[in-house]
Write a structure and sequence with these properties.
The complex is a heterodimer of chains A (about 120) and B (about 110). Chain A has about 120 residues and is an all-beta fold. Chain A has strands at about 5, 10-15, 20, 25, 30-40, 45-50, 55-60, 65-70, 75-80, 85-95, 105, 110-115. Chain A is built from no helices and 12 strands. In chain A, strand 5 and strand 6 form a beta hairpin. The termini of chain B are far apart. Chain B is mainly beta and about 110 residues long. The chains are: A mainly beta (about 120), B mainly beta (about 110).
């Protein structure tokens, strides 16, 4: 069975400083991994995805994530936070199989950006 | 724009009432999913479909039914709503091959009083 743990439920950063959102996963197979962002009262937007190609994945809006199999981690980073980055972020794992690659979500990390 | 459309966006139900949430996608995706989002729990899978005419149970299926009569539509039904079903519901569809990835609808906020 697959599972996802987001290690911080809340992260507070100052505008212009780096952002780090931590994610650990467990999976019986070679997983696909995603980061989604959800702004208040909005749907989910895909930031980036890892599907067994390059381990360093670049996404939209300056975000990137590194897949580390030995550490079962997929941490999300951004060098310089912007006020518009204030949102909730979800780390997601997907495995193959007859169930049609169901997604398993982490509990989410809420990011606050201070001016 | 191509994507996933959910209707309605908001709804208030009384306990025991029934309703159907509609999800429509125009990307010719085979796979479709219904999730519910509750605070601190991320999204949890209710039911899913791997193609027209097929449905299967997810992680939290009790109290819900689904149908996939047409490839582009995936309906989620609540036969007798309960306050525990107060949640935000998201539909998603998934592409395959080079189009692998999930597209989510904007959500339906349901309150059961």
């Amino acid at each position: 069975a697959q599972s996802v743990t987001q290690l911080d439920s809340h992260v507070s950063v100052s505008e212009g400083t780096p952002v780090l959102l931590r994610c650990n996963y467990s999976s019986s197979y070679s997983p696909s991994l995603f980061w989604y962002v959800q702004h208040p009262n909005k749907g989910l937007q895909l930031l980036l995805k890892y599907t067994s190609a390059a381990t360093l994945v670049k996404g939209i809006n300056g975000f990137e994530a590194e897949f580390k199999k030995s550490e079962t981690s997929f941490h999300l980073t951004k060098p310089s936070a912007h006020m518009s980055d204030a949102a909730e972020y979800f780390c997601v794992v997907s495995e193959g199989g007859a169930a049609g690659n169901k997604l398993t979500f982490g509990g989410g990390t809420r990011v606050l950006v201070k001016p | 724009n191509a994507g996933v459309t959910q209707t309605p966006k908001f709804r208030v139900l009384k306990t025991g009432q029934s309703m159907t949430l509609l999800c429509a996608q125009d990307m010719n995706h085979e796979y479709m999913y219904w999730y519910r989002q509750d605070p601190g729990m991320g999204l949890r899978l209710i039911h899913y479909s791997v193609g027209e005419g097929t449905t299967a149970k997810g992680e939290v299926p009790d109290g819900y039914n689904v149908s996939r009569l047409k490839k582009q539509n995936f309906l989620l039904g609540l036969e007798s709503a309960a306050p525990s079903q107060t949640s935000v519901y998201f539909c998603a569809s998934r592409g395959t091959g080079q189009n692998y990835g999930y597209t989510f609808g904007s959500g339906t906020r349901l309150t059961v009083v």
